[in-house]
Amino acid sequence: MYAFTFEQPTALDDALRQVAAGGKPLAGGQTLLASMKLRLSAPEQLVDLGRCQELSGIGLQNGELVIGAMTRHAEVAVNPQVRDNYPALADLASRIGDRQVRAMGTLGGSVANNDPAACYPAAVLASGATIVTTQREIAADDFFLGLFATALEEGELIKAIRFPVPKQAAYEKLRQKASHFPLVGVFVARFDDGVRVAITGAGNGVFRHAGLEQALSQAFTAQSAAGVHIDDAELNSDLHGTAAYRANLIGVLAQRAVTKASS
């Protein structure tokens, strides 16, 4: 292993100064450390955010569920406030990766990394959540910019994410056996003003599906989702599945998610 320094600030201001000086922020490390082992990333300084208490915690504020960026997947999965107010989010967190990943991985790390097959971005986008950073607040619709790309600027860190609580919601995915990432995942969230549907794993990043949203806003039923044509023109094709296969999966998983949300 090459040489690097390892910082563990206990205050967010100290962490920001170290990041501004060139340190690489370390959240759960589930992506960064693997990249370092493969020599795909070689930071000279790591800034561990795990001791910054300002970045952790779960609570309700003005009817929204607020989750700190350094909150672990396993904590979200079992937290009573999440399970009582947004059970679909707790369910999603309980099925990310494996037990080791859930014990270390964080909400903020997953969202900031924006892996095209990650689960959390689908929940954030479908919820119409707000990403609270050290500099501003960013709407989910403006945050995800494509493959591993977000609206975060250099030195900007996610502090927390605010989730509006939907009337009904569910997440369904087909897990890729080797990586545990979803081959396709569909998150459906029904609010008073309509339905939001976010897809992960099928394209170059998480995206909303206008056709499913329109149909489900008119009738929140599996039959309504089944009637929507899913275009495969811009979907991924690889050794795990063709674009046509992923398009079919989107339709099937959307129907399952609606059925689950309505049960």
TrEMBL record:
Organism (species): Pseudacidovorax intermedius
Name the record gives this protein: Carbon monoxide dehydrogenase
Entry-linked Gene3D superfamilies: 3.30.465.10, CO dehydrogenase flavoprotein, C-terminal domain, Uridine Diphospho-n-acetylenolpyruvylglucosamine Reductase, domain 2
Entry-linked Pfam families: FAD_binding_5
TM stretches of this protein: none
Keyword Protein biosynthesis applies: no
Boundaries of every FAD-binding PCMH-type domain copy: 1-168
Source organism phylogeny: Bacteria, Pseudomonadati, Pseudomonadota, Betaproteobacteria, Burkholderiales
Matches recorded under InterPro entries: CO_DH_flav_C (IPR005107), CO_DH_flav_C_dom_sf (IPR036683), Diverse_Substr_Oxidored (IPR051312), FAD-bd_PCMH (IPR016166), FAD-bd_PCMH-like_sf (IPR036318), FAD-bd_PCMH_sub1 (IPR016167), FAD-bd_PCMH_sub2 (IPR016169), Mopterin_DH_FAD-bd (IPR002346)
Superkingdom of source: Bacteria
GO molecular function: FAD binding; oxidoreductase activity
Keywords associated with the record: FAD, Flavoprotein, Oxidoreductase
Keyword Ubl conjugation part of the UniProt annotation: no
